[in-house]
Amino acid sequence: MEARDPELKKELDATLHARRELGPDYESALIESFLEKVDQRLDSAVDRRVRRQMAEQQMVVARGGAKSSHEGAGFGERFGFGAISLVLAIPLSAIGAVNADTEGLVISWIGIVGVNAVHAARGWPWTRRRPREKSDWED
């Protein structure tokens, strides 16, 4: 349904014209009739949207499922993450070395390597989640 539906505008004009002719005695019946037509238009618009979304979902399933957001992470993302982690490693190393000497430096680098390892591992095929099957209780 468009923002300005010409057919619905005609219905409203007809309802207002009928109210002027019939008077306030029939106002509630006219309003109910008009609202019923609006409700029918909304229902048909919602049905069309739901059918379109269902068709889109069926197309995604038929094509083998959607790619996850991290699948196929390009060189730019990996390079950017690595560069940022190395830039942040400088102050973290200094803080760790000043506060806890060599142990602090080692711990900060273990953390840096750990974060990078987790970021790299999220693209591995065996770490991806499989879609959950629908139970009989769900719609």
| Termini gap | 27 Å
Q: Oligomeric state of the chains?
A: single chain
Task: Count every helix, treating DSSP H or I runs of 4 or more residues as helices.
Answer: 3
**What is the mean pLDDT?**
81
Biggest sheet, in brief?
none
Low-pLDDT sequence parts: none
Tell me the number of strands: 0
Description:
- The protein is an all-alpha fold and 139 residues long.
- It is built from three helices and no strands.
- The chain has helices spanning 6-22, 27-62, 75-121.
- Helix 1 (6-22) packs antiparallel against helix 2 (27-62).
- The longest helix has 47 residues, at 75-121.
- The protein is elongated and about 90 Å long.
- The two termini are 27 Å apart.
How would you concisely characterize the structure shown here?
With 139 residues, this protein is an all-alpha fold. Helices cover 72% and strands 0% of the residues. The protein has helices at residues 6-22, 27-62, 75-121.
Write the layout of secondary structure elements.
Layout: H1 6-22, H2 27-62, H3 75-121
Helix pairs in contact: 1-2
What are the main properties of this structure?
139 residues, elongated, mainly alpha
